[in-house]
Design a protein that fits this description.
Layout: H1 4-9, E1 14-17, E2 26-31, E3 37-44, H2 52-60, H3 73-80, H4 84-97, E4 105-107, E5 113-119, H5 120-127, E6 132-136, E7 142-145, E8 150-153, H6 154-157, E9 160-164, E10 192-193, E11 197-199, H7 219-225, E12 240-245, H8 252-262, E13 272-276, H9 288-301, E14 307-312, H10 321-329, E15 355-358, E16 360-361, E17 363-365, H11 372-386, E18 391-395, E19 408-410, E20 416-418, E21 427-429, E22 437-443, E23 455-456, E24 465-471, H12 477-486, E25 500-503, E26 506-509, E27 513-517, E28 520-524, H13 527-547, H14 557-560, E29 569-570, E30 599-600, H15 602-610
Parallel strand pairs: 12-14, 12-15, 13-14, 15-18, 18-22, 22-26
Antiparallel strand pairs: 1-8, 2-6, 3-5, 3-9, 4-5, 6-7, 10-16, 11-28, 17-21, 19-20, 22-23, 24-25, 27-28, 29-30
Helix pairs in contact: 8-9, 9-13, 10-11, 13-15
């Protein structure tokens, strides 16, 4: 039975979190069993989050005397630990006002999550919510939640970021079909990847040597385009990784086929596996994304630089793959302990690499009570991680100003509808998080040489735009305002959020890249190719700084937008990223929401970073 004290507490001033409808991809089955147990987790508000951007600028702004002095994980943990007032307020409400016995409440070791082991009936009374059982339309997995929202007392709500499981249903949106007249096999996983591939018969391989980079973009093309000629000198001290999710896997035979033709020193070499939640690349699955990422990074960097692979397992019901990866890197992000099928077991126990490349999308960047609190917490965690000297790079998407390859636009009623000319633009996560370096896609123009600056891709619209969840950071104010004042189309104010974080930050080639997949050479691409290419460039920059006795570059965005890096990019001024019944945004001189600052000139970029402390 729920104590009478709880009923008294709920008549006080309250703050509600409401969701309007059942999230897309889920079906409501029935009311949850009131006697079933539920691990109710309260994510506590962290301390000093209002200073996170200032802390990052202190170590990432080239003008700062503390540039490059990254924080230790221990310092990050203590700085952002929830305050004693926050803990006491929430714990006191649970025990003294709601009558929850203290034995049912646990605090995780890092002091950021309070877990209450309650029955469904207790949770419903505690949160003034109605819990149901829902089914995933794609894989049939079940979860409990309360899509109708929940309520906290006003004096408690300011100390709690969100309560889980409630309105957030976790996990990525449905898998997206690849583009192109012939596509790689559809992925059995639920993760949205950014690339498609059309098969080229292996007997045509000889043609790659004579065709232009507009027809077949090889490693040699990338080297010429980006002035990239790299020999590692820092050995095992430097590190770089790609993250793959679910059943997006690779085969060594494909790597060897690719390396035998384009990078012989890498034949039989393989990435170092970092398994997250039991992630296993040796399963049946989709070969397109992992093959693309691994071959590009290993091919560009060569055998002197090891590549790590974060293989993140398909999440259990209700979990978000972003949470699994972030928890594996930082134990403070984990819940108290695994409970049933919903627990995370890898909590801060996985090695961190200097650069992490992510070529996936997990959520649309829209204001939604079932999404916003969680993605804001995820972005904050990314900021804390890059504060320690890690660079996280993500693809900007293949849907132009719409949501990825599903081309979804946001209607006034809050629904997402594909290719709707009346909808507003939709950014995507994690690319729109301010602490991510987002990478758009370019191509060599038809008939052009590698001496000429590329154009934005035309085979698909490169993702870019403005966040709804994250404000524009000060380090990109001048560049973005210049675009808005001089080049942005005159769309209605409701079409996109002019004050939001703008992306992408940079670009790299996204089509038509030559890789080996499924025993054959294929043309592949997407911004999911652009991200690992740029990740390889930053790994090479780190190699040079480490050799010079300096720190890794870590959070690079403030530096990239600074005057010190004005000549480090090839300015892309041709192209656009249409969507939602519009032409999207046009490329323009300087930064634009199609190609960002442009494509890298490795030597100039490296030298600019070497000039910093």
């Amino acid at each position: 039975m729920v104590p009478t004290q709880l009923l008294v507490a709920l008549v006080s001033v309250v703050a509600s979190v409401a969701a309007q409808s059942i999230p897309a991809g889920w079906s409501l089955h029935h009311r949850a069993d009131p006697t079933a147990l539920i691990p109710l987790k309260f994510s506590l508000a962290q301390s000093n989050l209002e200073n996170l951007e200032a802390f990052l600028l202190d170590i990432a702004d080239p003008r700062s005397p503390n540039y490059g002095q990254h924080w230790s994980p221990a310092r990050v943990k203590e700085t952002f630990r929830p305050s004693a007032d926050t803990l006491n307020t929430v714990h006191g409400w649970l025990t003294q006002e709601a009558g929850i016995h203290a034995d049912k409440i646990k605090l995780n070791p890092d002091g950021v999550i309070l877990q209450v082991n309650a029955t469904i009936a207790e949770a419903e009374s505690l949160l003034q919510a109605e819990y149901y059982v829902y089914s995933d339309d794609e894989d049939g997995s079940a979860r409990v939640g309360c899509h109708g929202g929940y309520t906290l007392p006003q004096h408690v709500s300011k100390h709690v970021d969100f309560v889980w499981p409630t309105v957030h249903f976790g996990g990525p949106r449905r898998s997206l079909s690849a583009r192109g007249e012939a596509v790689s096999s559809s992925s059995p996983s639920r993760f949205g990847r950014e690339s498609g591939a059309s098969t080229i018969p292996i007997e045509n391989l000889a043609d790659f040597a004579t065709s232009g980079c507009d027809i077949s973009a090889t490693l040699l093309c990338l080297g010429e385009l980006y002035n990239f000629d790299f020999t590692p000198v820092s050995g095992d001290v430097n590190s770089v990784a790609v993250a793959e999710f679910g059943a997006n896997v690779y085969r060594q035979s494909d790597l060897n086929l690719f390396f035998d033709s384009f990078r012989p020193d890498q034949v039989n070499n393989t990435p170092t596996l970092i398994s997250v939640e039991g992630g296993n690349p040796n399963v049946s699955g989709s070969l397109g994304e992992a093959s693309l990422d691994i071959e590009l990074v290993m091919g560009l960097l060569g055998s002197g630089q090891n590549l790590s692979l974060y293989q993140v397992a398909q999440p259990k019901a209700s979990l978000d793959p972003t949470d699994e990866l972030l928890a594996a890197l930082d134990g403070s992000y984990c819940a108290v302990s695994p409970v049933g099928s919903e627990g995370i077991t890898d909590c801060g126990d996985k090695p961190r690499t200097n650069v992490i490349s992510i070529s996936y999308h997990f959520n649309p960047d829209i204001i939604d009570p079932s999404i916003s609190p969680v993605v804001q917490r995820q972005c904050t965690e990314i900021g804390k991680i890059v504060l320690t000297g890690i660079t996280i790079i993500a693809s900007s998407g293949d849907g132009g100003v719409a949501y990825s390859q599903s081309h979804e636009c946001l209607l006034a009623n809050g629904s997402l509808v594909a290719n709707n000319p009346n909808g507003s633009f939709v950014a995507q996560l994690p690319a729109s998080c301010s602490y991510i370096t987002a990478v758009g896609a370019t191509s060599v123009a038809p008939g052009a040489s590698t001496d000429q600056v590329e154009q934005s891709t035309t085979d698909f619209p490169s993702g870019g735009g403005f966040s709804n969840n994250f404000p524009r950071p000060q380090w990109q104010d001048a560049a973005v305002q210049n675009y808005l004042d001089n080049f942005a189309p005159d769309y209605a104010p409701s079409v996109f959020n002019r004050s939001g974080r703008a992306y992408p930050d940079v670009s790299a080639n996204g089509w038509p890249l030559v890789i080996a997949e499924g025993g054959a050479f294929v043309h592949s691409g997407g911004t999911s190719a652009s991200a690992p290419i740029f990740a390889a460039v930053i790994a090479a920059v780190n190699d040079a700084r480490i050799a010079a006795g300096k720190s890794t570059v870590g959070f690079i965005n403030p530096a990239l937008y600074s005057d010190a890096f004005a000549s480090a990019f090839n300015d892309v001024v041709v192209g656009s990223n249409p969507g939602c019944g519009t032409q999207g945004f046009p490329a323009a001189p300087g930064w634009d929401p199609v190609s960002g600052l442009g494509t890298p000139n490795f030597v100039k970029l490296r030298d600019a970073f070497l000039a910093l402390p």
